[in-house]
Amino acid sequence: MRVRIIGVAAIAVLAWFLPYQLDFYGIHVVDIAIVFALLAIGLGLAMGVAGQINLAQVAFFGVSAYTLAILTTNAGFGFWTSAVLAMLAAALTGIFVGIPALRMQSHYLGIVTLGLALAFTNWVTNSTLTGGADGISGLPEMPSLFGIDLTNEYLYYYVELIVFGLGLAFALFVAHTGLGRRMRAMRDDSLAAGAIGASVPVLRLVAFVLASLYGGVAGVLYAGLVRYVAPETFSIANMFLLLAMVIIGGRQSIVGCVVGALALSLLREALVDFSVYAQLGFGAAVVLMVVFAPTGLAGIPVRLRRALRRTPPIEERAELRSFRSDPAASDTGGASLEISGISKQFRGLKALVDVSMSVQPGEIRGVVGPNGSGKTTLFNIVSGIYSVSTGSATVNGRVVTGRRPYQLSRLGIARTFQNLRLFGQLTVLENVLVALDRSPMRSVWRYALWPVGVWRDERALRRQAGDLLERFGLAEFAAAAPRALPYGIQRRLEIARAMATNPTLLLLDEPAAGLNGQEVGQLGEIVRSIRDSGVTVVLIEHNMGLVMSLCDRVTVLASGGVIAEGTPAEVAVRPEVIEAYLGDSMNTAEIAAEVETEVLR
Amino acid sequence: MEVFFQTLVGGLSFGAVYALVAMGFSIVYRTMGLVNFAHGQVVMIGAYAASTFYMSARLPFFLAIPVAMGVTGLIGLVIERVLRPLENKDFDLMLIGTIGFGVVLESLATIIWGATGHAVPSPVDTAPLDVFGIRIRTYSLVVLGIAAVATVALMMFLQRTKRGVAMQAVAMDHEAATAVGIHVGRSNAIAFAIGAGLAALAGALVAPLLYVNPTLGGSLGIKGFAAAILGGFGSIPGAIVGGLAIGVLDSFAAGRFQAYSELVVFLVFTVIIMIRPTGLFGERTVNRA
Amino acid sequence: MSEQASESLDTVPAPSPRDAEPMTDGLVVSGLSVHYGGVQAVNSISFTVGTGQCVGIIGANGAGKTSTLKALMGLVPRTAEAIRFGEHDLTRVRPRNIVRCGIGYVPEGRHVFPGLTVEKNLLLGAYVRPWRGPTLETMTEVFDLFPMLGEMRHRLAGALSGGQQQMLSVGRALMSRPKLILLDEPSMGLSPKLIENILAVLHRLRAAGHALLLVEQNAKLTFEATETCLVIENGQVAMTGTSTSLRADPRVRQIYLGL
Known about the structure:
The complex is a heterotrimer of chains A (601), B (289) and C (259).
Chain A: H1 2-17, H2 24-49, H3 57-73, H4 79-98, H5 106-126, E1 136-137, H6 153-176, H7 178-188, H8 190-195, H9 200-226, E2 228-229, H10 236-249, H11 254-270, H12 275-292, H13 296-308, H14 314-317, E3 337-346, E4 349-359, E5 364-368, H15 375-382, E6 390-395, E7 398-399, H16 405-410, E8 413-415, H17 428-436, H18 445-449, H19 451-471, H20 487-500, E9 505-509, H21 517-532, E10 536-540, H22 544-550, E11 553-558, E12 561-566, H23 568-572, H24 575-582, H25 588-600
Chain B: H1 2-32, H2 39-55, H3 61-83, H4 91-113, E1 118-119, E2 129-131, E3 134-136, H5 138-160, H6 162-172, H7 174-179, H8 184-206, E4 211-212, H9 216-231, H10 236-257, H11 261-275
Antiparallel strand pairs in B: 1-4, 2-3
Chain C: H1 2-6, E1 27-36, E2 39-49, E3 54-58, H2 65-73, E4 78-79, E5 82-85, E6 88-89, E7 103-106, H3 118-125, H4 133-145, H5 147-151, H6 162-174, E8 180-184, H7 192-207, E9 211-216, H8 219-225, E10 228-233, E11 236-242, H9 243-247, H10 250-257
Parallel strand pairs in C: 3-9, 3-10, 7-8, 8-9
Antiparallel strand pairs in C: 1-2, 1-4, 1-5, 5-6, 10-11
């Protein structure tokens, strides 16, 4: 920590004295590089942190610069008024470009954002308002600020430096607190992020707005510095240059994006006489980076450390502690779940046919059945991932069908997934933190107006997360990456994450899959304790031993319908159940006797 | 009325080129799940290669095309080989990797052929045809004809040959394809080469219609990509319909909004794709937990 | 269908005549393990399938049955002391060449090629053979075995019902004229009546001299179709024995129902 503070201080001092070493041209180059660094931060937030492919970053930059130019020259607005309006225009463009992200992702989003960026350059090249291909020149000089003459590029540098410092600090603050954590969770697994209560659509829009705000600031600084705007500054070629900066620097690290932007800007200037070869080199570097170092320059220290490390990593040293049940057992007794007449079809395939079941508050209900009998489909419906064809489900009397996963998470429904959906690039602690954070999306305004409040909440969350990890015996793994951990620990973490949302109904999809005998025993204890703390539990499970010993009642599905329901002992002797499992119904009497002895034991 | 038909035919001939570009996108996407953002630049290389063989090496135009297709086919193989480690792993990284290849190809073209570009004379110099009083450029018809032949050939290859059927099988289920003995890696490489060959055909055909320069790939690639998405990504009939639709839209937008045609085309495209994200022929995928 | 099973055995595609070669012992697996993502799905299991023999592997969901078959096909990372099939050392054969050793694979969940016609699906089964005379004869034999496939030969495989797709998947495996067929849960998601049909098909394949390795959750079907059975639990062999003896053994049910 101390090393880091000294490092930051040293860089700040160097940056402060840098102009004394540079000639007039040198300072101009640096001023431009800082503009690109701001653009790269915005792109890094959208692409690296939130996982939204954004090829329209230059358009945000352009909208802001052109708005400033038009307002100051044509409309005669003052510089600062125009600057505020330019930022606003960029943010509105951000929302407009972000709307397609609500409907599509990945390459679709790539082509749409790229198309919109092309549409923007097409417009500025042809409109008379924007001065066509010649652009707009003769922007008024920037007015003095607190008596500082900003027409001097040396002094302008200090303004840029301060704006950049604030911008970088804000981006780091966002990336490392609740909002950024939710965005990273969405990037790693948007389905699981929705299931723990992150409103994915709003987050996507926020990502684009953040990117566009950085584009807006960069546009204002650029127009104020150069006092001339023309289409080629905002061309697709520059968009790809920006992309190269972010990829080479490391898209998931804000500092990496800045390093990439500064390095490539300066390199481009140094190679200005060989610009085609520079471009060739940047393109080749991007290709090599994605294949060999997808985390970019920023990821290299981590990779080196991992390669050189002598002591084994935490995940090998730490041991899994036993689970401690919550002393403050609640008496709310959990929620009731009522499923009535649900059917679900996928393109003619009937996955569920008229399924009804009723789970009492505080019950542990098992859902069993052969492969392909529709168990997971049922969970996906109750947790809002699928819609129903007919029928409805209610939790504590409130209809849950037809709502989005994040809304259901806020109604107290939590779930785990059959194939584990942990956020792979978040630490164990962050996986829990993102689920603990129940603040509604509308409170993002605090990032702009009251960051102290965000910081306080963050500290409270970290305390709670520490307690929760302690309770689940995972405290020693807090800083580990989930994928590096043994499977049993990952399974337990997923339950801890689901419990962090403070649910009243918990859906567990095959929680014992892949666990050894001892771990299955621990799982049974954990589930019982969760029920005792006031949560209704429904679990899909193939480990019949666990189902028999744990569940109050069992529902058996086969071919999309309920074929039996009752206590484990009742269900296990039903001929239709044995037939569904074994394929025949012989010797049921014999089994009945065994089941009885088992239950008595 | 005459203007309408002339615009329509002009749009269709460009549309046929977009359709070829879109088919190249689609065939690669179907077999590998890879979206090749460098595809437009491969088209540009194809245009340069064909026009260079045609104008400098004095090859007949219709011989220059297959030679250019061979050149781009090799480029396709290189791209596939380099990005293979990312296959089925990180979609977004692969996408960015192909953008990197696009930048490389564009700067290579600038180094080899210069930044200014050149015009390509039409290989057929007969006077415009007069059909019921409407004058149609002969070359437009040549473009439509060749594109149609190429499409039919591609369909025949995919439907009638063992290799083509195997390629479709790989696209549908690569594990099952492996189990019946198909070399999935080789099949993917061939798909990539075919896609790149189609790109060269599109580039060669469009060269006499446009001015060939290193930035040609950008707009052709994006329009071809838009065509592929509009038709439903991965669908060959979709690529044809999408290509013709974008071509006609482009042509009419150019007539109506002059220089703003690109703006109009992309706004219309964005709106359509928002309403129907799977395109006209696309399959709806189910998001499974 | 079960009546049909007894008639005209000669219409079933027979294993290719190469198996007259001196090698014999069929499939020998020893110490096969599969790990993925920290889970040990299969833990050192060993078994053999002799020429023309029918062996079943049964167990509850998640016991490691599918992983075992995929490991034999080389489709998942595996470790093994030995996997031999006749003279072939399968640990050194690439997944795409397993079929060339004479092993046909019917994957779990059928995995037909949905966008291709029934006929093309079958032809792809014979990808390793030239698509001429003898292959077309094999196809006729498959159509005799499954007349329904013949009627629907120009339909897209994706448009078939679950049971029909299962028949197609078996037919596709037969097209390479394999000596050994690996079947992964052919009864999955099928109605009891269709399961009867599957059983009849298995009987016919067996009568025609194919060796079968049948992985199933449906124990009844497996006992009726095979001679020897392994019961696996948590990736390990819990019991082995002849199908007749296991059928009467109550421990099988205990393993299934977790008692």
